[in-house]
Amino acid sequence: MKLIQPDGSTAAMCGNGARVAAAWAAEREEATKVIVETPAGARRATLSDTTVTIEMGTPAFTPSQVPLATDRDTALINEQVGSLSVTAVNTGVPHAVAMVDDIDSISLNDIAPPIRHASMFPAGVNVTLGELTGAAQFRQRTYERGVESETRSCGTGAVAVGAVARRLGIVETDTPITVRPPGGELRVSVVSDQSATLTGSVEREFQTELSVVTESPTHSKTSSTTQPGSSDSDPDSDSSSGPGSEQNPKSVSDSLQDNVTR
């Protein structure tokens, strides 16, 4: 899976994108398990009806893994950056997570850019807000690097909220949580020394054909594509999963040949 951002950059990982890529491939392979190969690593996905659970890797707080500025040798935990107190974590891509009391009172598109471009984050950072609304229940908003605006859902951001809530002691160790960005509900599990998981529903929006330049501006071909769409993600989502029997995981890269997905 390769995710192209609106600004032309690529993201190492997109949680919702990986879930819908898994659903897209599983439908064609009649599988219930697939492996999505991403720049952040291979991610195993499991499908059940219209729900997809995907492994997200182990959240990293180490300065070199976030990454933080090279002169920083300690994790950034609940420290002031710009106008927010943030904790830095990498959940496939870097996030600066702020736990707040009133998520709706914050003008995220205004306060996020100075944090997103702060010298503390040499590769830039996504800016994510989390608000505890009940026992292991959170609301989430994310300003995404590469989009340069708030999005309706961010899967790596949902996992970042779970990882930071656990690190700060807001939730008990290994407690699964529910995260609700504007686009819908996601379920997150962050377990010690294991891959975090992200679970949510996937729905088909539409299918179309696009002319795609594959070699040069004068050489193009038409490829079938299923435009992403999900009840719990922004327009990075794809098709719903189809029925399939239990079998060995199949690599998404094998199924995406000559096809284009977002």
Please write out the topology.
Elements: E1 3-4, E2 10-11, H1 15-29, E3 33-38, E4 41-48, E5 51-57, E6 79-81, E7 84-90, E8 94-99, H2 108-116, E9 126-134, E10 137-144, E11 149-151, H3 155-167, E12 177-180, E13 186-189, E14 196-201, E15 206-216, E16 219-227, E17 250-251, H4 252-255
Parallel strand pairs: 3-17, 8-9, 10-12
Antiparallel strand pairs: 1-2, 3-4, 4-5, 5-14, 6-7, 7-8, 9-10, 10-11, 12-13, 13-14, 15-16
Can you describe this structure?
Strand 15 (206-216) and strand 16 form a beta hairpin. 16% of the residues lie in helices and 37% in strands. The protein is an alpha+beta fold and 262 residues long. The radius of gyration is 18 Å and the shape is globular. It folds into 2 domains: 3-55 and 222-255, no CATH class; 59-194, Diaminopimelate Epimerase, Chain A, domain 1 (Roll). The longest helix has 15 residues, at 15-29. It has helices spanning 15-29, 108-116, 155-167, 252-255; strands at 3-4, 10-11, 33-38, 41-48, 51-57, 79-81, 84-90, 94-99, 126-134, 137-144, 149-151, 177-180, 186-189, 196-201, 206-216, 219-227, 250-251. It contains 4 helices and 17 strands. Strands 3, 4, 5, 6, 7, 8, 9, 10, 11, 12, 13, 14 and 17 form a 13-stranded mixed β-sheet that branches. The protein has a two-stranded antiparallel sheet with strand order 1-2.
Helix content: 10-25%
- How far do the termini sit from each other? 9 Å
Largest sheet: 13 strands, mixed
- List the secondary-structure elements in sequence, H or E: EEHEEEEEEHEEEHEEEEEEH
Strand residue percentage: 35-45%
**Number of contiguous helices:** 4
Q: Briefly note the structural class of the backbone.
A: alpha+beta
Q: What fold name goes in the CATH topology slot of the largest domain?
A: Diaminopimelate Epimerase, Chain A, domain 1
Which CATH class of the largest domain? Alpha Beta
CATH architecture of the largest domain: Roll
Number of strands: 17
- What is the average per-residue confidence, as pLDDT, rounded to a whole number? 85
Structural domain tally: 2
CATH superfamily of the largest domain: Diaminopimelate Epimerase, Chain A, domain 1
Shape from CA axes? globular
Low-pLDDT parts are: 219-262
- Rg, nearest Å: 18 Å
